[in-house]
Amino acid sequence: MIARNVLLVLTVVVLLWSSGEACECSDVDCSGQTDIADIVTLVNYMFDNGPTLPFWPAADCTGDGSIDIADLVCWIGYHFGGTIPPTCGYSLMGPGEPFTSGCLDSMPSPNPYDRSAGTLRTEAKGDTLTVFHDQAWYQCCLGYHVEYVLVGDNEIWAIESDVNPECDCYCSFDLWSESNGYENGTYVITLIGIEGDTVGTDTVLFDYPVLTDQTQGPCVMKTDKRTALSDSGVVVYVWTGGTLQMSHPGAVFNCNFELGMSFWIEGDTLNFLEENVSPDPPMYCFCSYDITATVEGIEAGTYVLRVFAKDWDDEVMRLVDEQTLTF
Q1: What residues have CB less than 8 Å from 40, skipping those under 6 apart?
Q2: b/e string for 241-258 if b means 16 or more Cβ within 10 A?
Q3: Which terminus of the chain, N or C, has less C-beta within 10 A?
Q4: Can you name the residues that pair with 116 across neighbouring β-strands?
Q5: Could you tell me which residues come within 8 angstroms of residue 321 by beta carbon, excluding any fewer than 6 positions away?
Q6: CA 14, 16, 17, 18: dihedral to nearest 10 degrees?
């Protein structure tokens, strides 16, 4: 993973403490759209003692970790000159799925901050990150929301917010949220509380099996009826030192066929999905194809292996092979 620029890291920390809101790159005023008002907001901030930017990295057009005249020039060029789109140096992973234990114990206002901010725990499973906020001390009417931001290549910010109106007591909660879509690697996780405080920082390692290769052979046999071909031909699985290769000869798809292979794990079940992703319309014929797929990172063990197929968008996945094997 590429190390982050320290200046950008410190800036993001200060920003999240002050706002708790994440916006798309170029949405300088966090209005939900990119327009001339974003440039006005930036000019006011830089030259007219305007209000603090709601999400500072969204204004970092050059992606260098600072806001200066180069960013203003970049935005003007982007809006009026059709220049290269901005970089900003971060990406929004979207909201995480939130969960809450409910109120564990409570006390009335006006002493809402007499307890600690709670503690952070993290867990990586597959491509899913779970961030736990144990013993969080928030208002009883909590509407828990978490926004995930990937800063650079290896820093994940989980930004909490409360979407409910305020009520007149405070509770301790065990809270957690899930976010997915992360590539393998080591990440630094920072949880920012609703009040802008840093609850904690942790490091997680994503190390899950990944699909590394797929091949589609030419049309071996053509017919006008799918039933005239067999798509349940012998599927062969070969495991060597953590690498699993699935070979499926005679897979039956439309004559306009482009392979889109997916792989996922459910417990001890390894699933392959062969899907037709061709942009061309279906033809009135079917072909048999030889298909292979390679997955890296499969540990030795006993697994159920399944191959599914799907020829067009509204077709339900059909199971074409299932075997239980020990590697």
Answers
A1: none
A2: eeebebebbbbbbbbebe
A3: N
A4: none
A5: 232, 235, 248, 305, 306, 307
A6: 90
* Peptide bond connecting 108 to the previous residue in cis, omega within 30 degrees of 0: no
Tens of pLDDT, residue by residue over 235-269, are 999 999 999 999 999 999 999 999 999 999 988 99
- For residue 226, pLDDT beyond 70: yes
Q: How far apart are CA 84 and CA 81, in angstroms?
A: 9
Listed in order, strand segments (DSSP E) in 82-230 are 90-95, 97-100, 105-108, 119-125, 128-139, 144-151, 155-162, 169-180, 185-192, 198-206, 210-216, 221-223
> What is the per-residue pLDDT across 286-313, written as a single tens digit (0 to 9) for each?
999 999 999 999 999 999 999 999 998 8
Fill in the DSSP letter of residue 78.
Answer: I
Tokens of 142: 């909590």
8 or 227, greater pLDDT: 227
C-alpha span between 177 and 155 (Å, rounded): 17
Question: For residue 122, what are the β-bridge partners?
Answer: 131
β partners of residue 50: none
CATH class belonging to 26-88:
mainly alpha
- How far, in Å, CA of 298 to CA of 305, rounded? 12
